[in-house]
Structure formats: C-alpha cells, structure tokens
Specification:
Layout (H helix, E strand, L loop, with lengths): L7 H28 L7 H24 L6 H30 L3 H27 L12 H17 L6 H26 L6
Amino acid sequence: MTKNVLSWGQIAKQAAYLGSLTGLGYFVGITLMHWAGMGLGDWINWVYRIAVITAIIWTIMALRLRYPNGLSFLKAYSAGLMASSVLGLWMLISAFLFYGQIAPDYLKEYEAFYQRNREVQMYQTQYKKTNAELEEEETSRALTAQDSLIVQKGLEKHMEGTAYFFSVSGQAVINLIYSLVWGLLVSLPIAYMSMSKKE
C-alpha cells in the first residue's frame, strides 16, 4: 500500500484557499457588525480570534483528512503558519477597505469610546490608590482636583502613545502582526495533535 505524498505546493494551495476564505468571512463579519451597531466594544476582537483559529484548524485538518499518512509535525505547523499569514494579508486589506471606505468615522468613534473607558479605569485606580492611604473613617472622600489632574495628564500621555493604533495604517499593520503571532501560537498545539501516527 503506497502512502499519500503531501508536497509543499499542496500545503501552500490549501493554506491560501482556506486563509482567503476565512479572510473574506472576517471582512463580511466586521462589516455586518458595524451595520448592526455592534462595532464598538469587544465583539470585533472575537470575530478576529474566531477567523484565525478557524483558518488554522480548517487548513491542518483538511490536509490531515486528505493525506492521513503524509502529515508530519513540520508540515502541519507550516500549514498553520501559511494559513495565518494569508489571513493576515486579508485582514490588512480589510483594514484599508473597512476603515478607509465603509466606516471612515469608525476609528474616531472607537478612539472616543476607548478614551472614555480608559478614563473610568484610571479614575477607579486613582480612587483606590488615594483611599488606601487614608484613615478608615475617611475612605468615603471624593477625588480631589489634584487627583483629577493626575488622571487627565496620565490619560493624555496614554492617548498620545496609542495614536498610531487609531489610524488606518496602524490597524492594518496590527492586524497582520497579530495574525502572525496567533499563527505561531495556535498552530503549535493543532499541528501536534494532528500528526500522522506511526504504525
């Protein structure tokens, strides 16, 4: 009985196909969520995570089913990395299309949303820090003007440091980098679990 031979070209073809398919699904997903008014918040991050994990699992499992005796750990891991790389390119393109054409005001709205949430977190942190230094009977004291100034200066510095994140090119580059990093991490256990068993 001859073993199925899995070439690198077949791996690249499968990774490109399923990476592109999930990349298109990612783009459609974030667009529909935006139109449904669910764009702000953590929902889009979940679409991203699901797309990466799906691309890697589908690619490795499809190869495992087609070539049950020819999928080594190296080939499975490489397939996962290729799929996440292709998906990363689709996510990069999606960022330019989505933030530049479909939702040009989205990043400004998201920046304001992020800034409000970050401000609340910083005020809560400052309040806890201030009250930890007070006597027990004084713990109900409200934040002073000095506390507010500390928070506002810290918030301004933080927003200056994250300005690139709220640009179209920043989102495109971050999508690509995150996809590659997730590919490195997620592909490892999936590749290990899908290795061909030696008889």
